[in-house]
Amino acid sequence: MDRIMQTFLQIQNRYKKKKQWLIKNLIALGEIAILYAPTNVGKTFLAHKIALEVLTGSNELGESITGRVFLYSLDTQMEDCKLRINGLLKALNLGRSDEFLKNLYITTENELDLTKDTFKEMYSEVWKPDPDSYHNGGKWVEKWIPAPFQDYGSKFDFDEPPHNSLIIIDTLSQALGERSINDDAAIRKAIKNLKNWIDGSFHQISILVIAHTGQNASKGIMGSSLQKNDFPTVLKLRKKKNDQLELFREKIKCKAEGTSIPFVLREIVVDEQETLYVDVGKRLTEFEDSIITFFESGLEKDEIRDNIYKLGIGNTATRKSFNAVFLRHWKNLVGMGYIKEN
């Protein structure tokens, strides 16, 4: 490589735009992501949790930017959406829910066909809380989705903040019209339209698509392989022991790739109706707790590793296997935000 070209690349890299996150290490701003899991594992509950993270600017799944949410819930009835969202609000003890839900747009009945260039107008219903008891007696009223979201690639600019937005499509198979999830051409067209949506917003929106696995969940996303290959972020919901679930970062362009966010589905009663909500978090292992303790004391990564090895934590046969275990736990803690690398 000649010196002029090398200098050009150095300057280009210096001014290259830094990656931005809607939810840090999970949903990149201005990109599309896909979340997949088997049926009845909790995909929609998790999608609603992600929606609330953006609406409220919460940090349970990662440091979040407050934004609007457009939820195309094509696999769930409106009444179920209301119940689940109210369950989350109650679990989070949000006493001023109207401040957040004014930026939520939901549609469940109108058709969304990502294989076409245009689609029918869509409407939304927005929660208007009862001043006396926002969990009970509230009312949902019709509200039109802003016109830019009715045509792919349209320019939009909201008069008031928040200006960033998240579009959730639940599920992709229901958003392809008469085309099949196995149809490469249909998936290619859908991805193109999703990218046009992002380009039209000057990369102020992110898009999360929900997908299913087949009967054999180990084989990955059901349908065309383009779903896994062409989405820059692939998230997997998987079930662990004792009803523990985790959101696994299977493919993502950051250091958190290969790490997971643990959570469980808990029951909650709203208006005398039972529903579930996503409760994020887990108990740290002794190994992970030791890493955090040494990290907070100011030690460097190598010093932390050596000290933990001397303590005999980890139950490993050799120093080599211990190092591998240490790196796995370290990477997991970085992904969850407990420690930060320079």
Number of helices: 9
Content of β-strand: 15-25%
Spatial arrangement of strands, main beta sheet = 5-4-8-9-3-10-11-12-13
- Share of residues in helices: 25-40%
Radius of gyration, whole Å? 22 Å
Largest sheet: 9 strands, mixed
Low-confidence stretches: 5-16, 129-137
What class do helices, strands and sheet pairing give?
Answer: alpha/beta
| Count of β-strands | 13
Average residue-wise pLDDT: 81
For the terminal residues, how far apart are their CA atoms? Answer: 30 Å
Order of helical and strand elements: HEEEHEHHEEEEHEHEEEEHHH
Shape: globular
What can you see in these coordinates?
The protein has 342 residues and is an alpha/beta fold. 31% of the residues lie in helices and 23% in strands. It has 9 helices and 13 strands. The strands form 3 sheets. It has a 9-stranded mixed beta sheet with strand order 5-4-8-9-3-10-11-12-13. Strands 1-2 form a two-stranded antiparallel ribbon. Strands 6-7 form a two-stranded antiparallel sheet. Helix 2 (43-56) packs across helix 3, helix 7 (286-296) packs across helix 8 and helix 7 packs across helix 9 (319-336). The two termini are 30 Å apart.
